[in-house]
Specification:
Potassium Channel Kv1.1, Chain A; about 400 residues; SKP1/BTB/POZ_sf; Apoptosis, Tumor Necrosis Factor Receptor Associated Protein 2, Chain A; alpha+beta; 5-stranded antiparallel beta sheet; globular; about 20% strand
């Protein structure tokens, strides 16, 4: 028995353009929709529903838009809505389900959780924005859809690349190691860093090549073949062991990642293990309990470590909080002034501004910016501003070369 969408290959995109003539004159009463004619795709009948004045749950001034399955059969579909810029020189407006496969249940079924016959957006776009995209008064919405391909014969079994498994076999192998570390002793306390505690000292053996590629700052601290161990202070031995294990391709246990997230972030940041730092940050974001009382403490910590995802999480929390209560409880004098920009971005995103896919970098989510930077071969570490500047510099450089 399969639960959810079966893991099959996706089809090519199918595009169905919908023309809403005289869009500016369509009724703007909330909850009133205009339906497209039926169209066929993947053996199903569909309609595009647009609410020029928004649906009942839409913010004022926002247009709602949904895709409706008109067939009494269930289907899994990935979809997005694209509105091309009229003169081709500006950015296309695009919103989709961010690569997720949506379950469209039969037409007559009721929505249960995230599954239902109709999927879309209560706050698709500002109506004033869409008015700038009209072509001779017509709003042209391209519905892009793709689904799972029909079942195919299973691929022949081929063993996966054994490199990481072989590297893990050499983890902490004293006989083949060419560097060693003495870890422990005095460790500063995490809060305030005033108290110091003694911890047992442990010796770890490693291979310089594994560190050179995965923990460059740590690799710079030691030389292959050096008899004397490199002393590592202010890191607990169990945390250092996690870091080394990760450098050999290992996966840190989820419970350990949750309980030691901040210590792992600290050490990974110190030794240049960027991907582990971001993995621990994501785990911390999932588990941290934000309140107005601890907001300043957490957001300043995020800022100090360039934890852009955590900082975005903090700003999303503050932008959705009761404004009077926030003004009374949050000590804004203790918040660095540079964070005001992040707060304004959170407010803009909450109000539905700049949400087009591929739109302004300034309103993109941190995960989107990191993905874009990674695809361009850029560093994914750093603040929102650092990521945006790096992407812009790369794009400007590409245009210059062209």
């Amino acid at each position: 028995m399969q639960i959810g969408a079966p893991p099959r290959r996706l089809s090519d995109w199918v595009i169905a353009p919908m023309h809403f003539n005289g869009f500016a004159g369509l009724p703007t009463t909330k909850g009133e929709c205009v339906k497209s004619p039926e169209f066929s795709c993947f053996g199903h009948r569909w309609r595009l529903l647009i609410y020029p004045g928004g649906d009942n749950d839409s913010n004022n001034g926002r247009v709602a838009q949904r895709l409706l399955n008109e067939t009494e059969k269930c289907i899994y579909v990935e979809f997005k809505f694209i509105i091309k810029h009229p003169n081709g020189s500006g950015l296309d407006f695009c919103r989709g389900d961010d690569g997720e496969i949506s379950k469209f249940t039969p037409k007559s079924s009721e929505a249960v959780g995230v599954a239902g016959p109709c999927h879309g957006f209560d706050n698709f776009a500002l109506r004033s924005t869409l008015l700038d995209y009209l072509v001779d008064g017509t709003l042209i919405v391209e519905v892009h859809m793709r689904t799972n391909k029909p079942g195919h014969q299973s691929s022949p079994f081929v063993p996966e690349n054994p490199t990481f498994q072989n590297m893990l076999k050499d983890f902490c192998n004293e006989e083949t190691a060419d560097v060693k570390f003495e870890v422990g002793g005095t460790v500063e306390s995490a809060k305030g860093r005033r108290k110091r505690a003694k911890t047992p000292t442990n010796t770890f053996h490693a291979h310089h090549f594994a560190l050179r590629w995965n923990a460059p700052a740590l690799a710079d601290m030691c030389k292959p073949g050096n008899v004397s161990p490199t002393t590592i202070s202010n890191v607990r031995p169990e945390i250092f062991k996690h870091l080394l294990y990760y450098c050999y391709g290992g996966k840190i246990d989820k419970d350990d990642l949750q309980s030691d997230a901040k210590d792992i972030i600290e050490a990974a940041d110190r030794f240049g293990i960027v991907s582990l730092k971001l993995e621990a940050e994501a785990c911390y974001v999932d588990n941290v309990e934000l309140t107005l009382d601890n907001f300043i403490e957490i957001v300043t910590y995020a800022d100090s470590k360039n934890l852009a995802l955590l900082k975005e999480h903090c700003m999303d929390f503050l932008s959705s909080a009761n404004k009077i209560e926030a003004a009374e409880k949050v000590s804004f004098d203790d918040m660095p002034s540079r964070l005001v920009k992040d707060l304004m971005v959170a407010f803009a995103r909450r109000e539905g501004e700049g949400l087009s896919e591929g739109g302004a970098l300034s309103t993109m989510r941190v995960s989107q910016l990191r993905k874009l930077a990674h695809e361009k071969g850029l560093s994914v570490d750093g603040s929102r501003e650092m990521l945006i500047d790096a992407i812009k510099d790369d794009e400007d450089g590409g245009e210059t070369e062209a």
